[in-house]
């Protein structure tokens, strides 16, 4: 009887440990989203690259600890139809981290009522 009780306790401890490790893995901080990484993701988004060309990614920031799976980037682009002589347009992109990688969720540019928000298919 004593061996069975001990075996049950060991088994329960093993289950608890496995559950704790599994849950802990869900809350791991995602890898840093770098400026070059953000540039690649923005440039690859079909909704962006159909009519726009990336000029630069100026900054990338990640949310606070409780929201570390979200990031924002400030970047500049040109409309393809304007060519290289067109003015660079300031924009922001929103990213989310899921399934082990960063994804572009949307990007915005323009001011007020004239602003444009583009949802990116994922």
Q: Brief description of this entry?
A:
With 122 residues, this protein is an alpha+beta fold.
Strand arrangement across the biggest beta sheet: 1-2-3-4-5
What string, H for helix and E for strand, traces the elements in order?
A: HHHEEEEE
Q: Uncertain regions: pLDDT < 50 for 5+ in a row? A: 6-25
Cα distance, first to last residue? 56 Å
Assign an overall shape.
elongated
**What is the assembly state of the chains in this entry?**
single chain
The total beta strand count reads 5
Structural class determined from secondary elements: alpha+beta
Q: What report would you give on this structure?
A:
This protein is an alpha+beta fold and 122 residues long. It folds into two domains: 1-29; 31-119. The chain contains three helices and five strands, in the order H-H-H-E-E-E-E-E. It has helices at residues 2-26, 35-44, 46-49; strands at residues 52-62, 70-79, 89-98, 101-109, 116-119. A five-stranded antiparallel β-sheet has the order 1-2-3-4-5. The longest helix is centred in the first third of the chain and has 25 residues, at 2-26. The radius of gyration is 22 Å and the shape is elongated. The N and C termini lie far apart (56 Å).
SSE diagram, text form:
Blueprint: H1 2-26, H2 35-44, H3 46-49, E1 52-62, E2 70-79, E3 89-98, E4 101-109, E5 116-119
Antiparallel strand pairs: 1-2, 2-3, 3-4, 4-5
């Amino acid at each position: 009887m004593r061996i069975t009780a001990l075996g049950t306790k060991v088994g329960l401890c093993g289950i608890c440990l496995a559950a704790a490790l599994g849950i802990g893995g869900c809350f791991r901080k995602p890898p840093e989203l770098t400026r070059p990484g953000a540039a690649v993701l923005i440039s690859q988004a079909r909704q962006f690259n159909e009519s726009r060309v990336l000029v630069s990614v100026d900054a990338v920031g990640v949310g606070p600890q409780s929201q570390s799976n979200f990031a924002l980037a400030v970047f500049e682009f040109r409309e393809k139809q304007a060519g290289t002589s067109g003015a660079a347009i300031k924009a922001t992109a929103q990213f989310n981290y899921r399934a082990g990688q960063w994804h572009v969720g949307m990007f915005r540019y323009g001011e007020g009522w004239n602003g444009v928000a583009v949802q990116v298919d994922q």
